[in-house]
Every structure is written in C-alpha cells, then in structure tokens.
Design a protein that fits this description.
- About 90% of the residues lie in helices and about 0% in strands.
- By secondary structure, the protein is mainly alpha-helical.
- It has one domain (about 25-80).
- Helix 2 (about 25-50) packs antiparallel against helix 3.
- The longest helix has 29 residues, at about 55-80.
- It is rod-shaped.
Length: about 80
C-alpha cells in the first residue's frame, strides 16, 4: 500500500513539473500582447490630441504608463527566469 501511494505521489510530482516547464512561452506571449496594447494606446492618444479631447488623452497617458510598467516587469521576469 505504501508503495502504491509513493508511486502515485511520484507520478503527480513529475506531472506537475511538466506543467511549469513552458520555456518562457507564456512570458514572451504576454510581452507581445503588452507591446500591441501600447501601440494601440499610442494611436488613441495621438487621435485624442488631434481632436483636442484632452480628458481622453490624459486617460490614455495613464493607460500607457500602466502598460509600460507591466511590460518592464514582464521583461525583468523573463530575464531573471533565464539566469
């Protein structure tokens, strides 16, 4: 009985290891999504400034700051995961 339980726990441990071994694909995908979001927000900011909608431009600047912060965190995490 002890061997069966130990075997099941060992198989679960090996299975859990493969779940976490994605090789950084999720991090790179998240970085690409952040870059696309930044490009969209920059277009919206330019549009708002062209139309004189300064309230919306302020909102877009806040979103850009948040997106740049998120992008920098993702890049830092990817760097530290590779060390």
């Amino acid at each position: 009985m002890k061997r069966a339980i130990a075997g099941v726990l060992l198989v679960m441990a090996f299975g859990a290891g493969t779940v976490f071994a994605d090789g950084g694909r999720r991090d790179r995908r998240d970085i690409r999504h952040d870059e696309a979001r930044i490009a969209r927000d920059r277009r919206e900011l330019r549009r708002d400034l062209d139309y004189g909608n300064y309230g919306a431009a302020r909102h877009e600047r806040r979103e850009l700051r948040r997106d740049y912060r998120d992008l920098n965190r993702d890049r830092r995490d990817l760097f530290w995961d590779r060390r």
